[in-house]
Write a structure and sequence with these properties.
Two copies of one chain form a homodimer. Chain A has twelve helices and ten strands. With about 270 residues, the first copy, chain A, is of the alpha/beta class. In chain A, helix 1 crosses helix 11, helix 5 packs across helix 7 and helix 5 packs across helix 11. At the A-B interface, helix 6, helix 8 and helix 9 of A face helix 6, helix 8 and helix 9 of B.
Chain lengths: ~270, ~270
């Protein structure tokens, strides 16, 4: 049995396109609808209440568009809001970035020291750490929030620019002095600068949550018998809650291709 | 005749507290109500439509609180929204940061080259430049948007940290090669880093829009006979649309003192 309905993906902004890219790669048959809440980005320094309300509004908007599953492609919304919302939306599978990336990190570490970087809200929630500890209490977690990485990436400063290198040094020098052999990129913007992070932390495995989520989504579609087995070309649609002047450049940064984006009211 | 009603001040976030500080200094009798739209900060990279809608909602909220005048302590809202809204709110004086700061810059320059720095939206609107050209068409304007300055200041990176110095070099090196003798700090966050900007552009007059706005507000209160001449201590109240964990630190950065902040629904 095949299911043509699209997969809903959302993020606070356009960073979740790095997750969408991994979903296209692993699940080339699946149609998708992406919503970026660009009127209220970034979520990373907002309160738990605000992030939970915004997340609910976006899930509701995707349900109205008849999606068959929802991917929360946002570290902050996955950390802060998903645990409170999963019960309220039993009619549809919802996956966030926390569990898939945490499982992946646990399976990769040999030193039993895992680093986690993310926004202020993600790190304050310790959601990656809590999940990892449940899986293996002997693993030590090294958390670090990196609030400037998102605006730096959105400015297109993604190569070896001194601003990026100074920010990496500022945030990651403590991690460099630990025994971590694995680092979770706990924000969907971070894969864009993974080369510079890898240069600063040589030998450390970087976990791209987008890759982990695409694998988890694949299992979920198969287990629920809702994968699209038709050979028809999939359709990918993109919505944002506010259209600003340079979003097309930013989208190209994340996705590596040009897309056309429509405005949606939430 | 005296008027005890407060002055309403708003900004997208807490940066407008630099303007509030100058108002307290020049008008120590006046009570104020400050609203920071922290649920939707930053405005600088949002569309004109979004910024106009947010600005209307904030003015309406201040009117409900019975203010006698409104100060738009936000470069972006002043640039993008105020010109369209002044007619709609004839019942109350509204002043933004553009005209006072532009007038101040015109009166100070002798080289007739004025630099303007601000958010993406402020610079794209060229609102400072348009006002200056109306006043003196012989003045040449040098615009530069500096999107990373706001998140850097909000991270508390305000001293001579390499991230700040690299960002200043990145954005201001073109201005260094012009004949500007005056630079408008077109965003309320920027006075916090004016010492580092001054070091990079020695001999250039920096125009703090907060100081210009306080002077303009003083004239406006006197001309409208609505100044508070009572000797009673003024009251200053602070509202935000979202309360996050580190706003008190950020407020202290801007205002130089601790304050208590309440949440308001917009």
């Amino acid at each position: 049995m095949s299911n043509h309905r699209p997969i809903g993906i959302f993020d606070s902004g356009l960073g979740g396109l790095t997750v969408a890219k991994e979903i296209y790669r692993l699940l080339p048959n699946e149609s998708t609808i992406y919503i970026g809440d660009t009127a209220r980005v970034p979520y990373g320094n907002r309160s738990r209440e605000a992030v939970t309300q915004f997340t609910q509004e976006l899930i509701d908007a995707l349900l109205t568009l008849d999606v068959k599953a929802v991917v929360i492609a946002c570290g902050t919304a996955s950390s802060v809001a998903l645990p409170n919302l999963q019960d309220a939306y039993k009619q549809i599978p919802i996956i966030g970035v926390i569990e898939p990336a945490a499982e992946n990190a646990v399976s990769v570490t040999t030193s039993n020291h895992i680093g986690v970087i993310g926004t202020q809200a993600t790190i304050a929630s310790n959601s990656f750490g809590n999940f990892i500890k449940k899986s293996n209490p002997h693993i030590e977690i090294h958390n670090q929030s990196c609030p400037l990485f998102v605006p730096i990436v959105e400015e297109g400063i993604i190569n070896d620019h001194p601003i990026l290198l100074e920010a990496i040094k500022h945030y990651l020098n403590k991690l460099q002095q630990t025994q971590i052999d694995t680092l979770i990129l706990g924000c969907t913007h971070y894969p864009i600068i993974s080369h510079a992070i890898a240069d600063y932390l040589p030998g450390v495995n970087l976990i791209n949550a987008g890759v982990s989520v695409a694998q988890e989504l694949n299992h979920l579609l198969i287990n629920n018998h809702i994968e699209n087995t038709s050979a028809k070309s999939p359709r990918h649609r993109y919505f944002v809650t506010d259209i600003n002047q340079n979003f097309e450049e930013v989208a190209q940064t994340f996705l590596g291709k040009q897309i056309s984006i429509e405005k949606i009211a939430i």
